[in-house]
Design a protein that fits this description.
By secondary structure, this protein is an alpha/beta fold. The chain has eight helices and 23 strands. It has helices spanning 2-11, 33-40, 91-104, 122-132, 152-158, 186-194, 244-256, 281-288, and strands spanning 21-26, 46-57, 60-65, 76-81, 111-114, 138-142, 161-165, 200-205, 208-213, 219-223, 236-241, 262-268, 295-304, 307-314, 325-326, 332-335, 339-342, 345-348, 359-367, 375-376, 386-387, 396-398, 402-404. It starts with a helix and ends in a 5-residue tail after the last strand. 35% of the residues are buried.
Length: 409
């Protein structure tokens, strides 16, 4: 009987479940007041702050130190490093930089190197990390493509920790070729990473980009955080956002069943007021819990004499792509803000930004003898992750309109 059961017993690996730890990246180059506020008010177990960047001009380092604000104790310091020239050992340059960072941030936690090396250079990376661990706890970010190389085990052993990154922007060949930011094989990559036998974290996306294409469909520009790209003549732009539903499904799965080596999630990046291409805090909170966030559209009528102001609100956890609003019968009406009036409907302008969670917006007024029957006109969701200038994909759940008296709050 034992020979029969032995293969089964050997194949039974221990599994874990329950809550995971959560950290968030702060990747801004300039620390504005909103960045400082987001850092101070963060409810994450830890933060990983971009502290320096290193690029190369030949073999000469070009180092940029990020002037951060006050950091919570044990904040990790990340160093983004461009791939060094072939045959060049960057440890002397990095050693000086890490020492400077330790001295500038004596209360910081671990140091983290972010270097997207080609897989063939992993043997070098292990040597570099081993030489740099004398400056305190040192971790690194890893790409899923590295999991196929046996040298990754040596790199993992050389460091104090590591983070598997399962998100990135794949440069598209056309607007129709835009791929999701979250890797489709993220769950499988986590299982493969666990076979290395060392605890690790997984980096997940909360961000997006605006992509500009010319008339021939070639990618001509990428914008992140703020601002809009100029559309080339005859071209188009595409807003690409990480899909909350897809990420929430991963988190829910890991909360119920995961390899014990997976001990935390790192979110790229922390929501900051004014950062237009990152999930709002409410959306991220839902996804962290393994819950798909939903936008809840509500229409409220606020009365002044015989006129009503039409107010659209979002009481959900996801941004709300502005929906059309049916007004019903009225004597006179007009649109406000990002809406136009057409055939008894308030129609959002093309490219109007989504309404954030827990926000409302006056979108029109109506003169009528009785409360208008204003309500949301349901519209189909856009494809996951791909939205045309409206922010996030949302699950829209309309509510009944509310008619408020003149003294109502």
């Amino acid at each position: 009987m034992l020979p029969v059961l032995l293969p089964f017993l050997l194949g039974c690996q221990p599994r874990s479940s329950g809550p995971l730890t959560h950290q968030a990246y702060v990747w801004q180059h300039v620390w504005t007041d909103p960045v400082r506020q987001a850092v101070q008010e963060s409810d994450f177990e830890g933060l990983v702050v971009l502290a320096a960047e290193v690029s190369w001009l030949g073999k000469q380092p070009q180092t940029r130190i990020i002037e951060t604000g006050p950091l919570p104790p044990s904040t990790a310091l990340a160093v983004r490093v461009q791939v060094p020239p072939d045959g060049f050992d960057p440890t002397e340059v990095l050693a000086d930089l890490l020492l400077d960072l330790r001295q500038s941030h004596p209360n910081a936690g671990e140091l983290q190197l972010d270097m997207d090396l080609p897989t063939r250079r992993l043997p070098e990376y292990g040597d570099w990390l081993q030489a740099l661990t004398r400056f305190g706890p040192l971790s690194f970010t890893a790409l899923p493509t590295w999991l196929d190389d046996p040298h990754l085990a040596e790199v993992v052993e050389a460091a104090d920790g590591w983070v598997l990154q399962v998100h990135w922007l794949q440069p598209p060949s056309s607007p129709q070729d835009v791929q999701p930011l979250l890797a489709s094989d993220a769950a499988d990559s986590v299982e493969r990473a666990a076979h290395l036998g060392r605890n690790f974290q997984v980096a997940l996306p909360t961000y997006g980009y605006q992509l500009a294409f010319d008339a021939d469909g070639k990618l001509r520009g990428v914008a992140a955080e703020q601002g809009d790209l100029q559309i080339p003549d005859g071209g188009t732009t595409v807003e690409l956002m990480a899909d909350p539903a897809s990420v929430a499904a991963l988190v829910a799965g890991w909360q119920s069943d995961r390899p014990p080596e997976l001990d935390g999630l790192c979110w790229f990046r922390l929501p900051v007021q004014g950062d237009r291409r990152v999930w709002p805090a409410e959306t991220l909170a839902a996804v962290r819990a393994g819950r798909t966030p939903v936008a809840v559209a509500e229409v409220e009528l606020r009365r002044e004499d015989q006129a009503w102001t039409v107010v659209l609100s979002n009481s959900g956890e996801a941004p709300l792509p502005l929906p059309p609003i049916e007004l019903g019968a009225y004597l006179m009406a007009d649109a406000l803000g990002p809406y136009s009036l057409r055939s008894q409907r308030l129609i959002p302008h093309p490219g109007a930004p989504a309404l954030p969670p827990n926000h409302d917006l006056a979108i029109g007024w109506v003169l009528a003898t009785s409360p208008p029957n204003a309500h949301v006109v349901p519209t189909p969701d856009p494809p996951p992750e791909l939205v045309s200038n409206t922010g996030l994909r949302s699950l829209l759940r309309p509510s009944e309109p509310r008619a408020g008296g003149a003294g109502d709050p």
